[in-house]
Structure formats: C-alpha cells, structure tokens
Amino acid sequence: MQAEELLQLVNKVKHYQCEFQTIEIKSAGKGCPTRLYDSLSSFSNQDSGGIILFGLDEKEHFNIVGVYDIQDLQHKVAEQCKQMEPEVRPLFTVAELDGKFVVSAEIPGVDVAERPVFYKGAGRQRGSFVRVGESDEPMNEYEIYTYDAFRRRIRDDIRVIEGAKTSLFQEDLLQSYLAAVKSERENLSHNITDMEILELMGITSNGCPTLSGVLVFGKYPQAYFPQLGITAVVVPGTEMGDTGSDDERFISNKRINGTISEMLHGAVEFVKRNSRIKTVIDEDGNRNDKPEFPMKAVREVILNALIHRDYSIHTEGTPITICMYNDRIEVTNKGGLYGRISVDLLGKVRPETRNPALANILEILGETENRYSGIPTIQKEMMKANLPKPEFSVRNGEFKVILRNNLPIVYYEEFIDGQEMNRKSDRIFHRVGERDNALLEYCKIPRSREEIIGFVGFSRYYTMNKIMKPLIEKGYINMTLPDKPKSSKQKYYAAEIAKNRE
C-alpha cells in the first residue's frame, strides 16, 4: 500500500477503536513483539490475507506511539516470517504522522493447496491459526484436516467401509444403475463385467463396498453410520429455544435416514408438509396454492448438502440439519467450501468437487445433473418466487444455506371493533366464524389433513391444534377413523349438527 493509504488505515482504526478481521494492532514502541506467528498464520490462512499495524497502542485508546526503530522492526518481523511453513513474505510500508512513525506489514493469503500456514516451532497441530473477528484462534484438528484433504486429494467418498457387504445392497436399484451405466457410457457397455463397473465407478474397492456404494445402494446405510442422516425440526418462533403456546420446543421433529435418494425425498417431503401455504384466487375463482418456499430450490439445497458435505471420519458423528423457523429455513452440513472458491463466487465459477464418485453415481441415477447448476437454480427459483436471495455462509467448518419466506413472523389473533380477527400468510378470514364456516363447507366430503392444511393456509400444527381440534371437540367435525385419531389414513368431515349451529 502507499503511505497515504496507511495513514487512512490508521485513522480508521482510531475512529472505530478496534481491530478487524484483516487488521491486527501491535504497539512496538519499545521493541518488536516476540510472538507474531499466530497473526502470521491466521492472515496467511484466509483469502484476504491481513495487515499487522505497528505503532499504535490498544491500551492507550489506539493512539499513535510510534515504533522504536523502523529498520530493526522490519528485520525482526521478517525473521519471524521465515519461521513459518511455508515461509511468509510480508510487504512493509512506512508513514509518519504527528512526528511519529507507523509501519504496516501486509501478509498475503496463500493458495489453498499450501494451507495451513503454521509456525514451525510449534508444529502443524499447535502452530496453525485462523482469524475469528479480531482474534487469532488455534485451528482444530478438523480444520487442519480439510486443508490436508484438498492438498493430498483424499477421497473419502471411495474409502472402504469395514464390515459392509455388497450382499446388503438393494439389488433392484443396483441393477437399474448398471443398466443406466451401460446405456449412457458406451465404453462401459462391452467386454466388461458388472463387478468391474462397480470397481471403476467407485462403488466397490477390491470387492468391498465404499462409502459411496453404501450411501447410495445400501439397504440401511445408518447401520454403519448412525449419524450420517438428516435431523429436521420446525421451531415455533424465529430462534432455537422459542416455544409454542403449550411450551413445545418443536412443532415437528424428525430424523430422516436411508440412502441418499431416500433422505432427499424424505427431507423435501418434510419441508413441504410443514410449509405454510399461500393461496391465490384468480379472476375465474380458481384457487392456486403455493408453498412458502419454492420446492425446486429446497430440493437443490438439500441435494447439495447430501452430495457435497464432508464424509471424512472427522464428521461421521454430525448429521445434516434442517431447521424451519417462522421466517426462514436453514440447512447446515459439515464441511466448508472445498478447494479454491469463496462464498462470493458461488454460482459464478465452476467449483471443485469434494465427492466426485458420489456425484457421478447420483448423476447416472438421475438425482442430479452434476453440471454445477445447483446454486444458480436455487438463486433463480427464489427470484421467480419474489423472495430474498438465498444466503450462503461458512463458519467453523460448516456450510449453511438460508432461505427466507417474506411471510409474517408469528401467528396472531386480535380483536378489532369487538370482532375476533385471525390473519395468516396471504389468506385473510375476516372473522373466525367465517373461516370455520368455509372449512365446514369444504369438509362436506371427507378431507385428509393435507387437504385441510392447504385449504386453510396455516401450518400443520396450527391447523390441527388451534382450528380442527376445537371443531372436533364441539362436534362440528367428525373423523372417519375415530378409534385411530393419528392414522395416516384419517379423514375429516362436517357433522350434521354443524349445519344448524348458530
């Protein structure tokens, strides 16, 4: 940087009275700080790099105290940089302000393939740091592994699973896959056995099932990996810990297991079932129901989490999580971005694939295009639905996607001019009685839970507990299976007494 830029940076620090993600303050009024390797490591290990600014004193409200000796300071900082692996090469700038000198050392971020940069005196495990806000934190074992995995091209998706057997694969699914391979990949359709195809495609290794083989074709993959599934919850509020009217923490709570395909379909169905419905009546009186999130975008988010999550031994105990709040849905998977890509570049450049064998298998099965179209599809679907852009973030080795719905945050009942009002989503009933009359009219023929939820336009929990339950207790609604109230085949119909109610 130029001297003028350095002075602007000094004024910024003095104004905000703090350090930043890319700025570390060191006094150096009486000598060179003896421990710089934590900042040298953390700045080198982030794409943006960082700047160590000498000559300001944090204890003196970031006032300029100057450096003890410009030349000696640069020499000793450079000596400490040589103790890093790989060696750090700083760029120094000097400026004078109020008769005192300040010095900056710009630390460039290194290529992902060279990370983590660490202090040789402490070793890779103890000498690797990551920048968190204004502090330098030691990298944990998993964070170090993620860099090693990329540099060494560790393929966790094709590691052999001890104890697994191909006899426990779903035979019909496996045969469908082999037929698809031979149809789509002509060079694998002649003079090659089925066992050889399984080896070449990463489904087996020396006859033993790989992780990809188990996750795609296994009869029950969670027998080997109990936590490699999905946990899905619906929270009655906007933050984890919020509770509903009956102090319930979750409106719905489900663990979704099975193969990749089974988990994908189960998770999408969970979101769809627990989504609020936006009802639009066109000019001809026809009703059009739309879920609060575009399901195509939801599917891509969950599919990306299943395909691109980290499947190393370090993450076997961590499932994918789906959290539905009143105002958003969050999908989180273990494993940050893989390779040379940042959050800002998602959907703009072709990323490297963490699990290429798994992605290839699911492409042949028709679950994914494997053309790096997932993120653009999510973005386009949210735009088409007039919803906010999807939010992507990486923190503590986890990748999170947030989809916001732009719907009212809470359900509420209020009184206006003495009349009880009930509003929800884009559907408005002017009185609770009007809503119930419309529902009873709709239930002249037996209706399923899903049909009723779609008609009313509320969540599953609110519809069944706050609307249907009182009508059933008053005798206005009957059940087709009264002895099995929770049956999936249960339907609801308007009782005769309802026709004569006030």
Automatic annotation (TrEMBL):
Residues of the Schlafen AlbA-2 domain: 19-140
Domain Filamentation induced by cAMP protein Fic-like C-terminal, residue spans: 464-492
Protein name: AAA family ATPase
The species this protein was found in: Eisenbergiella tayi
